[in-house]
Amino acid sequence: MTPSPLLDNLIYDTPRGRGEQGRSSSVCWADRYQRFPETPERFDRELCVLGCEGFTTGWHWWEVTVQEADDIPAWVKACWAIGVAKESVRRKGSFQMSPKVGIWAMGRSGGESYAFSMVWQPLSLQSRLRRLQVRLDYEAGKVEFLDMETDISLYTFWTGPLLGEMLRPFFYLGKEGVTLQCEEFPRPIKDLRD
């Protein structure tokens, strides 16, 4: 994941034993600061990071475990999102997650689960989301989210024509007490059949 400086209060964990130096596998909000140089690739206001790997063709998937702390104050509602974003997504200033700005994501805000479409779509869920899979079919323009604990498809976005624009995994943390852990790094869907 490419870190964002955004107040420098996100923590990036490096995977152990993967041989991929510098690639992070988790992101969480914390009370300590990490300093990163200001670059055009970093978000400056929104608490977002993009995956290092980008896609311009093919079918890909990755799994994310969501850990919401139980000991945070009741008034702090979990706020997070995962999905995909265009490489060209605006990284300076504020924005609202939606396909209009080049982000196809789902997650939680204000304690409720949503697909962050043009008009946020509430998701009727029986339990808190813990393990999710993001599936991207680039040519079909399809981004699908699955609950890995129930094997249920939660929401599907249709991106429309992408015209070769690169898409990257997208991660957002809006409140403290949440960790997003990428359990399976992006890989082609064909690996599912192997």
TrEMBL record:
SMART domains: SPRY. The keyword Transcription does not apply. SUPFAM superfamilies: Concanavalin A-like lectins/glucanases. Residues 1-189 form the B30.2/SPRY domain. Keywords: Neurotoxin, Toxin. InterPro entries: B30.2/SPRY, B30.2/SPRY_sf, Butyrophylin_SPRY, ConA-like_dom_sf, PRY, SPRY_dom, TRIM/RBCC. It comes from the Eukaryota. The keyword Protein biosynthesis does not apply. Neurotoxin that produces dose-dependent hypolocomotion and hyperalgesia in mice. May directly act on the central nervous system, as it is 6500-fold more potent when administered intracerebroventricularly than intraperitoneal. Belongs to the ohanin/vespryn family. This is B30.2/SPRY domain-containing protein.
